[in-house]
Amino acid sequence: MNQATELHKRELRPGFGVEITDLDIAVADSATRAAVVDAFSKHGAVLLRGQKMNPDDLIKYLSAFGELEGHTQTQFTLPGYPNIFILSNREENGRPIGAHNDGVGWHTDFSYKDKPVKCTMLYAIEVPPEGSDTILADGCAAYEALDAAKKEQLNDLVLHHSYKHFMETRQYGGTKLSKEMEAENPDVFHPLIRVHPIDGRRALWVSTGTVKEIVGMANPQGLELIDELVEFMTQDQFTYRHKWQVGDLLVWDNRCTLHTGTLYDDTRYIRTMHRMWAKGDKPYGIGEVAA
User: Fold this and answer.
1) What is the pLDDT of residues 180-198, one digit of tens each?
2) Residue-wise pLDDT tens digits, 235-285
3) What is the DSSP letter of 176?
4) 127, exposed or middle or buried, with CB in 10 Å at 0-12, 13-18, 19+?
C-alpha cells in the first residue's frame, strides 16, 4: 500500500473540506499529491498544517492542481516568481511588499474572467495572534438547503460579471481602467447556479463586487437578490472559519465556494501570506454542457 492510499483526513466542518494530517507535502511523491487533489475536488477545500515550503515547493504543489494562473495586478508578485502574489502589511525601505486587506468581502476569485480560476492557495508565513481569519462558504450545501420553488427561480439565471464595474465601484476607492486593461478584461456572463465538473453537484455561485446585474432583471431588484443570496449562503451553518497558524497551506475550490478575508489590527501585527491560483474552466449551468 503506497502513501497516497494512507492519507489521514478529518472534516473542516460537517460535510465540507478536509484537513490532511501527518503529511509533509514538500517531499511527497506524485501519487500522494494526486490524492490530495482528489480530496480537494470532492470536498471543496483541503488544509495541511505545519508545512515548511519555499517558493519552488509551492509551485510544485499547486501545479498538481493544474496550470498556474497569472495575476491581473503584478506589482506585488514575489521577485523571480510571477505566479506567487504577496499579501502583507509589511514595509521594506518605506514601501509595502504586498497587497494589504486584499480579498475582504464575499467573492469568488477571477469571476470576471471567461474561465475563472479553479482554486486559490494561501500559505501562511507571518500570522497575527488575532484577526485575519479566512472564511469559506459552501455553495453546494447552500443550494441544497433552498426550497424547491427557490431553486426553480434561480436555476436558469445568468450573472453579468464586470472587472471594469468592480474596479470603478470597489470599496477602497474606484479606479478607472486604462483602455488596455479594459480590453484585456471584457465583461463575461456566468450561471448563478454552477455545476461542478467533477461530479455534477450544484452550487449557489453568487459573488459580490464583480456582479453588475442579473441578466433580464432590472436593478435594484437584481442586485438586491444577489445580496439576499450572499447573506443566505454565508450563514454560520454553511461556513468554515479558518484561524491561521504559521505553516498553514489552504486550498479551496472556487467552483463551489465563496470566501472573504477578515480584518486585523495592522498597527500592532504583521501578516504575510503567499497566494497562488490554478487555471479553471468556463463555468456551466444546469442543462448546459461543459466546454
Assistant:
1) 888 989 999 999 999 999 9
2) 999 999 999 999 999 999 999 999 999 999 999 999 999 999 999 999 999
3) P
4) buried
| 260 in Cβ contact with 104 (< 8 Å) | yes
> Would strands 16-21 and 45-48 be described as parallel, antiparallel, or unpaired?
parallel
For the question of whether the overall pTM of this predicted structure is more than 0.70, the answer is yes
Q: What are the strands of the beta sheet with 134-138, ordered from one edge?
A: 239-242, 134-138, 257-261
| DSSP structure class, residue 99 | B
Cell of 160: 453579468
Give yes or no for a contact between 205 and 108, defined as CB atoms under 8 angstroms apart. Answer: yes
User: DSSP labels for 21-69?
Assistant: ES--GGG--HHHHHHHHHHHHHHSEEEE-S----HHHHHHHHHTTSSBP
DSSP three-state, residue 172: coil
Among all chains, which residue has been given the C-alpha cell 431553486? 151
The grid cell for 102 is: 486584499
pLDDT in tens, 147-177: 999 999 999 999 999 999 888 887 556 788 8
Domain ranges for the chain, please list them.
3-103+117-127+243-256+265-278
The CATH-assigned architecture of domain 3-103+117-127+243-256+265-278 is: 4-Layer Sandwich (3.60)
- Which residue is it, cell 503529511? 23
